Amino acid sequence: MKTMKLMATTALGVLTGLSPAFAQMTEIGAGEGALNIVAWAGYVERGETDPAFDWVTKFEEKTGCKVSVKVAATSDEMVALMNEGGFDLVTASGDASLRLVAGGKVQPVNIDLVPSWKNLDDRLKDASWHTVDGVHYGVPYMWGPNVLLYNTEVFKEAPTSWSVVFEEQTLPDGQSNKGRVQAYDGPIHIADAAQYLMAHKPELGIKNPYELTEDQYKAALDLLRGQRGLVSRYWHDAFIQIDDFKNEGMVASGSWPFQVNLLKADGQPVASVIPEEGATGWADTTMMHVDSQNPNCAYMWMEHTLSSNLQSDLAVWFGANPSVPAACTDGSGMSTAESCHANGMDDFDKIRFWTTPVANCSLGEGACVPYYRWVSDYIGVIGGR
Fold first, then answer.
1. Which string of b and e fits 10-37 if b means at least 16 CB within 10 Å?
2. Distance of CA 305 to the CA centre of its chain
3. For the chain, domain boundaries
């Protein structure tokens, strides 16, 4: 039988000002027989997409915990699903994780019950997107950049700038980019626009794409309104984007390495690059619902994510970087030192990781535009307002 204790913690005052009490596990008992996970596409594989990639079957055989996965397309969808309840774990990016902590939807993780915690990348152990007041609210999973996906028949050489998706122009094949590019269907894409402006309009003084003053924010929205005239589709479903590049004439878009890898495996003429302006990115964390019905299975899974072949194989499958550096070289799976280098393992400090914009930022109290504005205004941009 599992043993629980109540642990009071200070939540994110900048978001809610509340300090909810959470139940934290102190020991792991027998598995409950089930585990329900909200995850990004491609994150929890059992060999159904490709038999070579399966890190679920052996876990189920070992623990008796039957894994069910609900794929979410955006961080906002993940937050909504966790708010509804009925799930044990979520693989949350930084623009969702702190909202889940502040909303009291996830519980602290007792890292003493995750023996392989010691093997984590030191850069991730106390990362701000899952650690609040010294309390850990999750186990780091994967991280990587948002890349520029492009058609190599159109671009004989890799594009050097994100301008190919932000500004109307004639592409190397002599045709306009209008109607041939895509943009991400999520408010966090405002940060991509802000990062582009950091390089091209330095007079705006943007230092952090997630901390924008009213004037900086307005400039980012104006850029996105111009982009709307170029975009054929705002994508959020990875597999629909893959189909669009195969069948609908798309030639450039922000994307994830996951889509790039699947398109290449299908023989499609694509490649990816991080342009000169740099890239935003994601560092995802496995977080446990405060009302998890299967906490023992959840803790078993969190340990499994760090101690099995999952880190090594998922890094190859998704084109991401493992949270356990040894997965690149220990032979536990398909990753090698070369593949991790190619995925950007050495570029950690160059990536501006997704995080939740808040009003009380490093620029001062109430100095920055908060996330709820990003949500409503980006809906307006997509709608043509």
1. ebbebbeeeebebbbbeebeebbeebbb
2. 16
3. 3-144+282-348, 147-255+355-382
